[in-house]
Design brief:
mainly beta, SH3 type barrels, 6-stranded mixed sheet, 5-stranded antiparallel sheet, 3 helices, about 40% strand
Length: about 150
């Protein structure tokens, strides 16, 4: 199967023995790299037809097998759904998407009662605090409050 890696750690596939494809737990029998793709063989997937049935599914791992992050780094899955507050503690909205722009991530925040989302650059001077445990992000963006 040809996998398009959506991870910051594509080399992690080398040591993997199991993963999920969609909601199906599978055993990995081989991994090779080809340009920007990963060629992966999976036990029980032996034909093009078997592989075609999985097109569009995401490959994922259990949280316990996720690559450890450094202090101040977060998985996108942990950022999604965080409540976004201003420095006065007022709730602005909820993170609904993370755009990876290359230079820095941008958090898409949906605001209640407004049709347009706001974009919050993931910069230390803007994002003052992220607490996954508390489910919140504190930002300093005065133009949002006006």
């Amino acid at each position: 199967m040809k996998i398009i890696p959506m991870t910051d750690f594509p080399d992690r596939f080398e040591g993997m023995t199991h993963c999920y494809i969609g909601d199906k737990f599978v055993e990995i029998t081989g991994v090779r790299y080809q340009k920007n793709h990963i060629l992966m063989t999976v036990k029980g997937i032996s034909s093009r037809e078997d592989a075609a049935a999985l097109v569009g599914e995401f490959v994922s791992v259990d949280r316990s097998e996720a690559v450890p992050l450094k202090e101040g780094e977060y998985y996108i899955a942990d950022i999604l759904g965080l409540s976004v507050l201003d420095t006065d503690g007022n709730t602005l909205g909820t993170v609904t998407d993370v755009l990876q722009t290359g230079s820095n991530d941008v958090y898409v925040v949906s605001l209640p009662g407004r049709r347009e989302d706001i974009l919050v650059p993931a910069l230390k001077k803007v994002v003052l605090e992220i607490s996954v445990e508390e489910g919140k992000m504190v930002v300093s963006m005065p133009e949002v409050v006006e």
